[in-house]
């Protein structure tokens, strides 16, 4: 037996428990996790902090958990999804009772000296619960859609009260993405999002709100089982949405209001509320095409960008790796999303397919919002960049989600061909 054959047999023995795992997806996630540690180290190089070591340690733990989950049959979660849902909500209630407060929000529970953020793991809990519900009853009917929304409303409300506006928006992206994949009418999904848009338009441009409400009424008339009632209901809902927007504005904390206002014009408060965004844009612009070089960015090394190792890590990438580095990272995220879609399409059942789509919706929304806020295209919401930003709870959650998706890939139906000998 040749040495090449022996090596191949050893490799097959190693991967035997994961015969159908998407190794390309796993490799890309490991790659951007390593990149995250490198950039976190650069951002903290002159501060005497070693969060980059913790980033890689937690990433390594997460990788082990992901490989373990990939071997475990994901469909076992079907009989546990209500228990997971209950634990998710209890953990969010626990934050409100014994949680640690920082920067105006109560989001962490201290366990053995480590701060755990239950709202991060709640995203995964919601994905599992919605996947199980939509697996049992697709979202092709209005009652099924209402049921899914009602299930999501409880953890969403608990997160919003912390307050954690960014995570509550992620919940919205997850439920809309999974409802779409679960055969919900796209018009219904637009109706779901319409009150949020109405709340914004009602406050800034009343004429646009009238046009938007009329368009939504037409969509409701075309897609609702009861056309006239649907159109009337759409008008009422958007009117209420506009009014609720005024109420919610009063509920928001001062720092949340500042983030939304400054997003439109950061130069109106350049030394306080607009400082993050201004410095982030300067850093990314300074990188130009090829970047200033690793550990060479002035904005990064002189600590001009606050929270750069967490929410604003993309600004360090833009300054030190340049436009080319940013594009390469975006291409990797695009490939990750494509692999998730392929896994969803090839899953053996709706439950596995919906799990993959839920993770896809979560990742896409977080990437778009995080990068958008660093370049001034989205408000600063505190949403981390998956696998790149520093954050232990977020890192573990992302790897657990990856493990579930890899389990879907590992246990998909395998094609079997039977050879028939000619008679």
Features:
423 residues, mainly alpha, three-stranded antiparallel sheet, 3 strands, 70% helix, disordered C terminus
Brief sketch in words of this structure:
The chain has helices at residues 3-14, 23-43, 51-71, 81-98, 118-136, 142-160, 165-181, 186-204, 206-223, 227-251, 254-264, 275-286, 298-301, 313-346, 350-374, 392-410; strands spanning 100-102, 105-111, 114-116.
Describe the structure.
Strands 1-2-3 form a 3-stranded antiparallel beta sheet, covered by helices on one side. Residues 414-423 have low confidence and may be disordered. The chain is mainly alpha-helical and 423 residues long. It has helices at residues 3-14, 23-43, 51-71, 81-98, 118-136, 142-160, 165-181, 186-204, 206-223, 227-251, 254-264, 275-286, 298-301, 313-346, 350-374, 392-410, and strands at residues 100-102, 105-111, 114-116. The protein is globular. It is built from 16 helices and 3 strands. Strand 1 (100-102) and strand 2 (105-111) form a beta hairpin.
